[in-house]
Every structure is written in structure tokens, then in C-alpha cells.
Amino acid sequence: MTTQYITVDEAEMISKEVFDTAISAFMKFAKQHPTIEHQLAKIIVPFTIVRWKKFGFRCAGRACRKTVLGKEILWIEMNTNYLSSKDWKTFIVNTLIHELAHILAWNAARSWGHDKAWKAIARAMGDDGSRCHNYATPENKPARKQSPGRVRTDMKCPHCGKVYSLTPLMLKRTSVPGQYRCVCGTDTAKFIRP
Predict the structure, then answer these.
(1) Rounded to two decimals, what is the model's pTM?
(2) What angle do CA 45, 122, 8 make, to 5 degrees?
(3) At 28, which CATH number?
(4) How many domains are there within the chain?
(5) How far apart are CA 91 and CA 163, in angstroms?
(6) Beta-sheet pairing, 61-68 with 71-79
(7) Which DSSP letter does residue 139 get?
(8) I want to staple 36 with a disulfide (CB 3.0 to 4.6 A). Which of 14, 30, 54, 137 is the partner?
């Protein structure tokens, strides 16, 4: 069985159709929800730039924002690695809606994460509201080595006895007096090994 691949140009054309459909669904949703409807005047459905980039296999896409000379710039980056996957159609539609929901949630509620505002907008546009994807990775993907995991050190609060499992970086940071405290209020610099 051969897999049908798609070019970036073809993906951009599909993205525009998905974008228009998702925006229409969002506007219908916003009119039905009073908390968002009163903000519709200030919600700017941005002319969102979709950039196609090659980056890793964990991330299917990402919504990006930055401020340049007082002007906020928002864009979406889509991973070209998934264009050679057998799930490329699902990848384009779901990832674009997911990332567009981040941008609209930012414009509507200054929310930038996978919180209630994002989830409501994502679901209104046809996304399932999940945080992670499960797209089939392209057949030419190199096998990823399993990392041995982080080495952790257990440290105990001498006052309440709570044990914390710390990574080397966390261990280094907690050894600085006054920087962090246990839930009971004891300075983490006083922690001991159990």
C-alpha cells in the first residue's frame, strides 16, 4: 500500500479552507455565549499567518505570539514532518483548529494554555479539546531513543517530614537559603536526606 503525500503548497490551500470554516464556527459559538459575546467587538479575528516548518516529532504545531514595537504578532507554525504521514489530512485539520483556538482564546480572554476558555473555543470549532495528538508518525521517522529518565534525589523536610523527589536542577535551586519553602514553611536549604 502506498501512502499519498502532500506538498506544503497543497497543505496551505487546505489550511485556508479549514481556517475559514473554523472562524465561522467560532463566531456562531461566540454569539451564543454571553461571556464571549460582549467581547466580540474587541475580539480581532487575526489574519493569522501559517508557517510550515520542520521541527521534531512530538509537536504537531504551535501557536506563537510576540510583541514588536508595541504591536502584537500572532502566528501558527505547523510541522512539515507530518505532511508525509498517512494521517496528513487529520493532522492539518485538527492541528490548525487546535492552534487557532489558542489565538482566539488569547484575543477573547487573554488565555494562553489548555484551560477552560481554550477548550470551549476549540470544541466550538470542531476540535475534541484534547491537549496532545496521536497522529501516525511518518514511515521514514528515525527511531527515537528512550531516555533513561531523570535521576532524582529524595530530600526530607526536618520539620514536617514531607519527602520531595528532586531533579539535580531542583536540588541545586532549593539549596539556596530563602529561595524556596516547604508547604509547612521551612526553608528548603534546611532539607536533609531521608
Answers:
(1) 0.57
(2) 70
(3) 3.30.2010
(4) 2
(5) 42
(6) antiparallel
(7) T
(8) 30
